[in-house]
Amino acid sequence: MRTIVAGNWKMHTDRTTAAELVNGVVKGLEALPAQVEVVVAPPFPFLASVAEQVNGTRVLVAAQNCHEAATGAYTGEVSVGMLKSIGVGACIVGHSERRQYFGETDTAVGRKMAALLAGGITPIYCCGEVKAEREAGRHFDVVGRQIDEAFAGMDAEMIARVVVAYEPVWAIGTGLTASPEQAQEMHAFIRSALRNKVGALADTIPLLYGGSCKPDNAAGLFGQPDINGGLIGGAALDATSFVELVRLATAAKH
Ligand code: PGA
Q1: How far apart are CA 9 and CA 234, in angstroms?
Q2: Would you list the domain boundaries of the chain?
Q3: What b/e string do you get for 175-184 counting C-beta neighbours within 10 Å, with b at 16 or more?
Protein backbone atom coordinates (compact mmCIF):
# COMPACT_ATOMS: atom_id res chain seq x y z
CA MET A 1 0.00 0.00 0.00
CA ARG A 2 1.17 3.51 -0.83
CA THR A 3 1.63 6.06 1.93
CA ILE A 4 1.03 9.74 1.13
CA VAL A 5 1.59 12.92 3.12
CA ALA A 6 0.01 15.92 1.39
CA GLY A 7 0.20 19.56 2.47
CA ASN A 8 -2.77 21.79 1.74
CA TRP A 9 -1.48 25.35 1.87
CA LYS A 10 -5.01 26.79 1.40
CA MET A 11 -4.96 30.57 0.84
CA HIS A 12 -1.59 31.07 2.51
CA THR A 13 1.90 32.10 1.35
CA ASP A 14 3.02 34.63 -1.26
CA ARG A 15 5.50 34.25 -4.09
CA THR A 16 8.51 34.50 -1.76
CA THR A 17 7.25 32.43 1.15
CA ALA A 18 5.86 29.73 -1.18
CA ALA A 19 9.33 29.34 -2.72
CA GLU A 20 10.96 29.28 0.73
CA LEU A 21 8.49 26.74 2.09
CA VAL A 22 8.92 24.25 -0.72
CA ASN A 23 12.67 24.73 -0.63
CA GLY A 24 12.63 23.88 3.08
CA VAL A 25 10.53 20.78 2.40
CA VAL A 26 12.82 19.53 -0.38
CA LYS A 27 15.94 20.11 1.76
CA GLY A 28 14.40 18.44 4.81
CA LEU A 29 13.36 15.38 2.80
CA GLU A 30 16.94 14.75 1.69
CA ALA A 31 17.61 13.15 5.09
CA LEU A 32 14.69 10.69 4.74
CA PRO A 33 14.25 7.51 2.69
CA ALA A 34 11.87 8.06 -0.23
CA GLN A 35 9.17 5.57 0.78
CA VAL A 36 6.32 7.99 1.39
CA GLU A 37 4.81 10.04 -1.44
CA VAL A 38 4.99 13.74 -0.64
CA VAL A 39 2.55 16.23 -2.14
CA VAL A 40 2.27 20.01 -1.72
CA ALA A 41 -0.78 22.02 -2.78
CA PRO A 42 0.10 25.72 -3.12
CA PRO A 43 -2.38 28.42 -4.23
CA PHE A 44 -2.92 28.71 -8.01
CA PRO A 45 -0.52 31.62 -8.67
CA PHE A 46 2.47 29.66 -7.32
CA LEU A 47 1.71 26.25 -8.82
CA ALA A 48 3.92 26.71 -11.87
CA SER A 49 6.94 28.05 -10.01
CA VAL A 50 6.66 25.46 -7.24
CA ALA A 51 6.31 22.71 -9.90
CA GLU A 52 9.57 23.95 -11.43
CA GLN A 53 11.26 24.02 -8.05
CA VAL A 54 10.34 20.40 -7.26
CA ASN A 55 11.15 19.08 -10.74
CA GLY A 56 13.54 16.14 -10.28
CA THR A 57 12.73 15.74 -6.57
CA ARG A 58 10.29 13.31 -4.93
CA VAL A 59 7.72 16.06 -4.29
CA LEU A 60 4.53 16.16 -6.37
CA VAL A 61 2.53 19.36 -6.83
CA ALA A 62 -1.25 19.41 -6.38
CA ALA A 63 -3.88 22.06 -7.05
CA GLN A 64 -6.62 22.82 -4.51
CA ASN A 65 -9.49 22.97 -6.99
CA CYS A 66 -10.27 22.78 -10.72
CA HIS A 67 -13.16 23.22 -13.16
CA GLU A 68 -14.59 20.24 -15.01
CA ALA A 69 -14.78 21.85 -18.47
CA ALA A 70 -11.81 21.72 -20.84
CA THR A 71 -12.01 25.39 -21.85
CA GLY A 72 -14.70 28.01 -22.16
CA ALA A 73 -16.33 31.12 -20.79
CA TYR A 74 -15.90 30.35 -17.06
CA THR A 75 -14.37 33.51 -15.68
CA GLY A 76 -12.04 32.86 -12.78
CA GLU A 77 -11.84 29.11 -13.26
CA VAL A 78 -8.89 26.80 -14.02
CA SER A 79 -9.10 23.66 -16.16
CA VAL A 80 -7.46 20.27 -15.77
CA GLY A 81 -5.52 20.77 -19.01
CA MET A 82 -4.06 24.02 -17.68
CA LEU A 83 -2.92 22.25 -14.52
CA LYS A 84 -1.47 19.36 -16.51
CA SER A 85 0.48 21.74 -18.76
CA ILE A 86 2.43 23.13 -15.80
CA GLY A 87 3.27 19.79 -14.22
CA VAL A 88 0.52 19.45 -11.61
CA GLY A 89 0.05 15.78 -10.70
CA ALA A 90 -2.85 15.81 -8.23
CA CYS A 91 -5.80 17.99 -7.23
CA ILE A 92 -7.73 18.28 -3.97
CA VAL A 93 -11.49 18.20 -4.59
CA GLY A 94 -14.48 18.43 -2.32
CA HIS A 95 -12.63 20.04 0.57
CA SER A 96 -15.10 20.98 3.31
CA GLU A 97 -14.17 24.66 2.92
CA ARG A 98 -15.25 24.50 -0.72
CA ARG A 99 -18.45 22.71 0.24
CA GLN A 100 -19.18 25.24 3.00
CA TYR A 101 -18.16 28.55 1.39
CA PHE A 102 -18.60 27.82 -2.32
CA GLY A 103 -21.59 25.49 -2.27
CA GLU A 104 -19.86 22.50 -3.88
CA THR A 105 -21.96 19.37 -3.94
CA ASP A 106 -20.84 15.78 -4.30
CA THR A 107 -22.34 15.65 -7.76
CA ALA A 108 -20.25 18.64 -8.84
CA VAL A 109 -17.18 17.15 -7.19
CA GLY A 110 -17.84 13.89 -9.05
CA ARG A 111 -17.71 15.79 -12.36
CA LYS A 112 -14.40 17.36 -11.38
CA MET A 113 -12.99 13.94 -10.49
CA ALA A 114 -14.04 12.52 -13.84
CA ALA A 115 -12.33 15.43 -15.64
CA LEU A 116 -9.17 15.01 -13.56
CA LEU A 117 -8.99 11.27 -14.22
CA ALA A 118 -9.53 11.79 -17.94
CA GLY A 119 -6.72 14.34 -17.87
CA GLY A 120 -4.29 12.13 -15.98
CA ILE A 121 -4.35 14.03 -12.67
CA THR A 122 -4.99 12.21 -9.39
CA PRO A 123 -8.03 13.49 -7.46
CA ILE A 124 -7.66 13.74 -3.69
CA TYR A 125 -11.32 13.46 -2.70
CA CYS A 126 -12.21 14.94 0.70
CA CYS A 127 -15.18 13.79 2.74
CA GLY A 128 -16.20 14.10 6.36
CA GLU A 129 -19.03 14.97 8.70
CA VAL A 130 -19.69 18.21 10.62
CA LYS A 131 -19.87 18.32 14.42
CA ALA A 132 -23.66 18.15 14.68
CA GLU A 133 -23.75 15.09 12.42
CA ARG A 134 -21.23 13.25 14.60
CA GLU A 135 -23.03 14.25 17.76
CA ALA A 136 -26.26 12.90 16.28
CA GLY A 137 -24.51 9.61 15.44
CA ARG A 138 -25.01 10.20 11.71
CA HIS A 139 -21.33 10.31 10.67
CA PHE A 140 -21.29 6.97 8.86
CA ASP A 141 -24.49 7.83 6.96
CA VAL A 142 -23.10 11.21 5.93
CA VAL A 143 -19.74 9.94 4.73
CA GLY A 144 -21.32 6.92 3.04
CA ARG A 145 -23.66 9.21 1.11
CA GLN A 146 -20.83 11.58 0.14
CA ILE A 147 -18.91 8.66 -1.32
CA ASP A 148 -21.92 7.21 -3.10
CA GLU A 149 -22.84 10.53 -4.72
CA ALA A 150 -19.34 11.62 -5.68
CA PHE A 151 -18.43 8.23 -7.19
CA ALA A 152 -21.77 7.63 -8.93
CA GLY A 153 -21.15 7.02 -12.62
CA MET A 154 -17.47 6.19 -12.15
CA ASP A 155 -16.29 2.69 -12.97
CA ALA A 156 -13.98 0.61 -10.77
CA GLU A 157 -10.91 1.46 -12.83
CA MET A 158 -11.55 5.18 -12.29
CA ILE A 159 -12.39 4.91 -8.59
CA ALA A 160 -9.21 2.93 -8.00
CA ARG A 161 -7.14 5.92 -9.21
CA VAL A 162 -8.58 8.28 -6.57
CA VAL A 163 -7.01 9.12 -3.21
CA VAL A 164 -9.61 9.61 -0.46
CA ALA A 165 -9.09 11.96 2.49
CA TYR A 166 -11.33 11.63 5.54
CA GLU A 167 -11.48 15.04 7.16
CA PRO A 168 -13.97 15.39 10.01
CA VAL A 169 -15.01 19.03 9.64
CA TRP A 170 -15.00 19.56 13.42
CA ALA A 171 -11.28 18.73 13.44
CA ILE A 172 -10.15 21.03 10.62
CA GLY A 173 -8.16 23.99 11.86
CA THR A 174 -9.72 23.63 15.31
CA GLY A 175 -6.94 21.87 17.18
CA LEU A 176 -9.41 19.03 17.85
CA THR A 177 -8.28 15.79 16.28
CA ALA A 178 -10.21 12.60 15.78
CA SER A 179 -8.77 10.00 18.12
CA PRO A 180 -6.81 7.25 16.32
CA GLU A 181 -9.73 4.91 17.12
CA GLN A 182 -12.38 7.29 15.72
CA ALA A 183 -10.30 7.83 12.59
CA GLN A 184 -9.56 4.12 12.10
CA GLU A 185 -13.23 3.24 12.54
CA MET A 186 -14.24 5.68 9.81
CA HIS A 187 -11.38 4.67 7.52
CA ALA A 188 -12.42 1.03 7.84
CA PHE A 189 -15.99 2.08 6.99
CA ILE A 190 -14.77 4.01 3.91
CA ARG A 191 -12.63 1.03 2.87
CA SER A 192 -15.65 -1.26 3.02
CA ALA A 193 -17.82 1.26 1.12
CA LEU A 194 -15.14 1.30 -1.58
CA ARG A 195 -14.91 -2.49 -1.54
CA ASN A 196 -18.61 -2.60 -2.40
CA LYS A 197 -17.82 -0.53 -5.49
CA VAL A 198 -14.47 -1.86 -6.69
CA GLY A 199 -13.89 -5.15 -4.86
CA ALA A 200 -10.32 -6.02 -3.91
CA LEU A 201 -9.02 -2.86 -5.62
CA ALA A 202 -10.26 -1.01 -2.50
CA ASP A 203 -7.19 -2.32 -0.71
CA THR A 204 -4.98 -0.29 -3.07
CA ILE A 205 -6.75 3.07 -2.53
CA PRO A 206 -4.84 5.32 -0.12
CA LEU A 207 -7.07 6.74 2.64
CA LEU A 208 -5.61 9.87 4.24
CA TYR A 209 -6.64 11.41 7.53
CA GLY A 210 -6.95 15.20 7.79
CA GLY A 211 -7.93 17.55 10.59
CA SER A 212 -5.40 19.09 12.98
CA CYS A 213 -2.89 16.34 12.21
CA LYS A 214 0.40 17.51 13.71
CA PRO A 215 3.75 16.02 14.75
CA ASP A 216 2.53 15.49 18.32
CA ASN A 217 -0.52 13.41 17.37
CA ALA A 218 0.40 11.88 13.99
CA ALA A 219 2.15 8.73 15.19
CA GLY A 220 -1.06 7.36 16.71
CA LEU A 221 -3.04 8.15 13.58
CA PHE A 222 -0.46 6.84 11.10
CA GLY A 223 -0.18 3.67 13.20
CA GLN A 224 -3.76 2.66 12.31
CA PRO A 225 -4.11 -0.06 9.65
CA ASP A 226 -6.55 1.81 7.37
CA ILE A 227 -4.84 5.20 7.63
CA ASN A 228 -2.40 5.50 4.74
CA GLY A 229 -1.10 9.00 5.41
CA GLY A 230 -2.36 12.49 6.01
CA LEU A 231 -3.78 15.62 4.41
CA ILE A 232 -2.18 18.39 6.42
CA GLY A 233 -3.30 22.02 6.67
CA GLY A 234 -1.74 24.20 9.36
CA ALA A 235 1.28 21.99 10.02
CA ALA A 236 2.14 21.99 6.29
CA LEU A 237 2.93 25.71 6.43
CA ASP A 238 6.08 25.03 8.42
CA ALA A 239 8.71 22.98 6.57
CA THR A 240 10.11 21.43 9.74
CA SER A 241 6.69 20.22 10.95
CA PHE A 242 5.72 18.94 7.52
CA VAL A 243 8.95 17.01 7.06
CA GLU A 244 8.55 15.60 10.57
CA LEU A 245 5.10 14.33 9.54
CA VAL A 246 6.69 12.62 6.53
CA ARG A 247 9.27 11.06 8.88
CA LEU A 248 6.53 9.82 11.23
CA ALA A 249 4.56 8.34 8.32
CA THR A 250 7.70 6.61 7.08
CA ALA A 251 8.40 5.20 10.54
CA ALA A 252 4.81 4.01 10.99
CA LYS A 253 4.38 2.40 7.59
CA HIS A 254 7.76 1.29 6.22
P1 PGA B 1 -5.70 21.39 9.36
O2 PGA B 1 -6.36 21.34 7.90
O3 PGA B 1 -4.57 20.40 9.38
O4 PGA B 1 -5.22 22.81 9.52
O5 PGA B 1 -6.77 21.03 10.34
C6 PGA B 1 -6.54 20.12 7.23
C7 PGA B 1 -7.24 20.36 5.90
O8 PGA B 1 -8.13 21.21 5.86
O9 PGA B 1 -6.92 19.72 4.88
Answers
A1: 8
A2: 4-253
A3: eebbebebbb
pTM greater than 0.85: yes
> Closest ligand 1 atom, CA of 174?
5
Digit-coded pLDDT (tens) for 125-170: 999 999 999 999 999 999 999 999 999 989 999 999 999 999 999 9
AA identity, residue 73: A
Residue of 37, 68, 104, 167 with catalytic role: 167
| Class of domain 4-253 as given by CATH | alpha beta
| Residue 60 near residue 88, CB atoms below 8 Å | no
Strand, coil or helix: what is 163?
strand
**149 is an active site residue:** no
The pick from 170, 172, 214 for probing ligand 1's pocket by mutation, whose C-beta has the most ligand atoms within 8 angstroms, reads: 172
30 is catalytic: no
